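Lab notebook, design round three. We kept the backbone fixed and only want residue identities now. Task for the bench partner: fill in a sequence for the structure below.
Input structure tokens:
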């Protein structure tokens, strides 16, 4: 009986070992089956892929896969430590070029002459020339190659501004007319308007003539006759400025004659008579001191 009992125990252990081995074999078989199934699946996928590739056109291009985003940090932008600044638009202001005051210091009227009193002017008449006052005008008429002047001797002008209207009615070529200033006897300054449109200045001293400003053309000087021009003269100290129709012409600096009488003249330079009338004389006081020039070093 003891031997039978031992045999049963031993047999029971053998059966358990056999069962364990069978279980492991079954597990291995299952793994092999799964592995074969995976291989079959892979082979099937490969076959299908090959079949699809074979069906594509010869010149077809497989689509490129979009790369997956990487974990690389984005590029750091370059820092501009001194960025260029915008150039400001400069404001433009209009530039005004001021016309210098060419007749400064003119004050009140000191004399108005409407040429109604012939006693205050030099008047005369001859076969060669005549100076007469009529209808509020002083008329000078001179025959060919004759010079004629008329002065208002009751006034002495030093610093002044004067205006007078001249109207040439017979005048051509080199014939001339104009004003005399700072006249003393047969010495004076003569501002000459020629009938060819030129203007110049002469100094006459004891009947000796000297041109101190050469003839220059002026658009304000009437060319020929009939014509009309308003002659203006600004004189302060040694400086004398000529104006025609209110426009500055030029300046002369000459200190020979500081003061004297005011007058007018006409001269025929050709073979025809010259006739000029003068009217509406006004004289103004001038209160002006020229600036002292700074000497050069």
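Proposed sequence:
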């Amino acid at each position: 009986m003891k031997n039978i009992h031992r045999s049963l125990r031993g047999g029971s252990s053998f059966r358990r070992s056999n069962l364990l081995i069978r279980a492991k074999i079954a597990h291995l078989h299952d793994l092999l089956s799964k592995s074969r199934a995976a291989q079959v699946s892979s082979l099937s996928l490969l076959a299908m892929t090959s079949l699809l590739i074979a069906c594509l056109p010869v010149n077809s291009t497989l689509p490129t896969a979009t790369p997956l985003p990487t974990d690389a940090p984005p590029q750091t932008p370059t820092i501009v430590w001194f960025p260029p600044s915008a150039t400001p638009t400069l404001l433009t202001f209009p530039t005004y070029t001021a016309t210098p005051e060419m007749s400064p210091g003119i004050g009140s009227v000191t004399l108005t002459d409407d040429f109604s009193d012939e006693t205050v002017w030099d008047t005369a008449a001859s076969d060669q020339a005549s100076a007469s006052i009529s209808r509020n005008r002083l008329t000078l008429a001179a025959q060919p190659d004759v010079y004629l002047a008329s002065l208002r001797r009751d006034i002495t002008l030093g610093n002044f501004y004067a205006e007078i209207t001249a109207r040439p009615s017979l005048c051509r070529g080199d014939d001339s007319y104009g004003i005399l200033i700072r006249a003393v006897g047969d010495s004076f300054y003569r501002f000459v308007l020629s009938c060819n449109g030129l203007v110049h200045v002469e100094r006459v001293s004891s009947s000796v003539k000297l041109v101190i400003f050469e003839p220059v053309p002026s658009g304000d000087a009437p060319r020929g006759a009939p014509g009309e021009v308003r002659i203006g003269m600004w004189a302060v100290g040694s400086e004398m400025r000529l104006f025609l129709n209110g426009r500055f012409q030029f300046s002369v600096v000459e200190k020979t004659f500081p003061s004297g009488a005011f007058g007018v003249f006409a001269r025929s330079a050709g073979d025809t008579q010259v006739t000029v009338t003068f009217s509406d004389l006004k004289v103004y006081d001038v209160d002006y001191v020229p600036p002292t020039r700074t000497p050069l070093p």
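Keep this in mind before ordering anything: The longest strand covers residues 274-286.
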